[in-house]
Amino acid sequence: MGREICMPDLGTADAEIRIVEWLVEVGQSVARGEALLTAETDKAAIEIESVASGILQEVRVEAGDEVAAGEVIAVVKGEGGTEISTESATEPGPDTAVEAEVPEPQIAPAPAQPSGPKPSRKGMFARNREARARRPAGGRRHAGLRDNQRAVAKRLTRSHREIVPFDMVCRIEMTAAARQLEILETELQRRVGYNPFFISAIAGIARDIPCFLSYQLGDEVGTHEQANVGFVVGFDRALYIPVVHDADGKVPIDIGREVSRLALKAARGRLSVEECSGACVVVSDLSGYPIQSFNAVIPPGSSAAVAIGGVEEVPIVKDGTVAVVPAVQVTLTVDHRVVNGRNAAMLLTRLIESMEAL
Asked: Are 83 and 163 part of one and the same domain?
């Protein structure tokens, strides 16, 4: 007799978890620890592993269906009729092979040369006209959202609907930060940008201003136990917010290593739910682009977002004389339901002090 497999609690803010794709077909063998299906939460699309070995006897939900945590999703029967204890699928752990070398892509063989007579120019023009006639009006095409895009769209819509944003802007001189960044990237032998320094500083400040550890969920206010800071990573049309947990207890070089590791996993689409969860504040760093400033969106479950504009050479007055220094504009967007203006100003004041004293 088969045993029921239930959808685990993935720690998602949404009640429903969407089934994206079954990776094992009914009748196929599945081993413990093997990816059974892909599911999509409000944070990421992840693989759900099987906790038992046997034959996938029945699938209770199809791709595209939405289920709740604890709902039966499949039935697995032991090979040879052996019994399997009832267990839920579990959330996948971190990818231990993240630093492994990515396999080289396989090169497709050259296409075979067409046989028969060479097509005439008249025939080619006729086919082109037919192809244009089949295009949608206005030259537009419609395609379904990819899994990551759908998850991002849901979170952005929810943020716009629920969160009350309030913005403050400041300018930070980056002379000291630029020197420290050069040292850090030499040590790490890779580019990480200013994220490690901003994450370290913001985490320490948030620990001292407790409202930044809070978030509003409906009529209740929750509190993060650790100063976790997320950072935005974008690839083409994919967007992720990995989280550096307990960031106030880590030095910039350790944060730099974690930023690199998480960004690599994001590029491979291998982030776990835990690695995308629990951010108190989110940092979006566009300092490498020629923009002055922008506003970042606060994800649900966070209190604030820090947007870092491009580094520019600007004139400032120092000791009565004018000097030209590298600087960025930083925009702090807070959820005004949990953070007031005074606390927002305090965070920016201390952030300026921390970054300019590196």
From this structure: no
